[in-house]
Amino acid sequence: MISDSITDAEFAAALAAGRVEAETEIRARTVRYVADRDSIEIVTTRHAGFLIPRGWIGALQDVPIEELVKLDIWPDGSAIELEDLDIHISVDGLMTAILPAMLPTKTIAAIFASRGGRATSDAKRSSARENGRKGGRPSKPNKAAVA
User: Fold this and answer.
1) How far apart are CA 90 and CA 59, in angstroms?
2) In contact, 56 and 15? CB cutoff 8 Å
C-alpha cells in the first residue's frame, strides 16, 4: 500500500529546497502581453523587467492575440502559462535562453568572470589566511629589475 502522506522531515526538506530555488532561479511577479510592441512583459520578484518580442518565444509565436491577453503566472512565479492552450513556460529557462540574445557576448563573459572571481572555497580561504600571516600576497618579481 502506498501512503499519500509525507513525513515532517520530507516536508521540511521540500521547504528548504523551495527556498533555495526561489533564491537561485528567476521568478515572475507579473506578466502581460504588450500589443503595440507584440511583446511579452515579465517583471521578476527582484523588480527587474523584461520586454521580450513574442517571436523569440517559440511556444507563443502562433498564439492568437486574444489568447495572449490571458497570460498568467504560476503561484510560485516559476512559470507563465496559457492554461486554455496548455502552454507552460519556465521563467528561469526563458530568461536563461533570452538574456544571451539581449546582451553582447563580451558583457556576458565579463559577468561570469566577475562572479567566478568572487567565488570562495575552503582552499581559497585557507590560502588567504596563510598569506595574511606571512604579510599578505607575495609580490610579483619586478621584470625591469631582472632584465
Assistant:
1) 11
2) no
Q: Categorise residue 77: left if φ over 0, alpha if ψ from -120 to 50, beta otherwise.
A: left
Write the pLDDT tens digit of every residue in 109-125: 787 777 666 667 777 77
User: Which residue ranges make up each domain of the chain?
Assistant: 10-102, 103-133
Task: Render pLDDT for 65-74 as a digit per residue (tens, 0 to 9).
Answer: 999 999 999 9
Question: 34 CB contacts (<8 Å, ≥6 apart)?
Answer: 40, 41, 51
Rounded distance between C-alpha atoms, residue 92 and residue 25, angstroms = 6
- The CATH-assigned architecture of domain 10-102 is 2-Layer Sandwich (3.30)
Q: Is the pTM of this model over 0.85?
A: no
